[in-house]
Each structure stands twice: as C-alpha cells, then as structure tokens.
Design goal:
By secondary structure, the chain is of the alpha+beta class. The protein contains three helices and four strands, in the order αββββαα. The strands form two sheets. Strands 1-2 form a two-stranded antiparallel sheet. The radius of gyration is 13 Å and the shape is globular. The mean pLDDT is 83. It binds zinc ion (ZN). This is CsfB. InterPro entries: Sigma-G_inhibitor_Gin.
Length: 67
C-alpha cells in the first residue's frame, strides 16, 4: 500500500514520453500525460511523428491476450 501511495505522488509513467508525470489521462491500463495527449491531438496524421505515437499506442490497444 505504501508503494502505491508513493507512486501516486511521483506521478505515473507516460507510455509515450516514458516520463513520470502527475497530470494526464488513463487509457485502458496505461497513462498518457497531458503534454503527449495535446501533442497527439494536434499532430497531423501525415506527420511522421504520428506514426511514432500510433506505435506507442498500439501497445495499449493490443492487450496481451493476442500475443
Ligand atoms: Zn508523455
């Protein structure tokens, strides 16, 4: 229980930038920080960066059931 509390204080690891952030949204069991969320929304689908995000997000939307 103690470690859970400590984790909350330090923030959660964002699946995209892989940094511990305190603010963000939860997508399934993963966490996306507000910075990446904003980036993701504003990035055009033709932007190569978008593919990078998609690859990261694929980890979330493809649960281990399919492995
Ligand atoms: Zn992030």
């Amino acid at each position: 229980m103690g470690s859970l509390l400590a984790k909350k204080q330090a923030g959660e690891e964002c699946v995209i930038c892989e940094q511990a952030k305190t603010r963000g949204i939860h997508l399934y069991t993963s966490f996306i920080c507000t910075d990446c969320e904003k980036d993701l929304i504003t990035t055009d689908t033709s932007n190569p960066k978008y593919n990078y995000y998609l690859k990261k997000l694929r980890k979330i939307t493809m649960p281990e059931i399919f492995s």
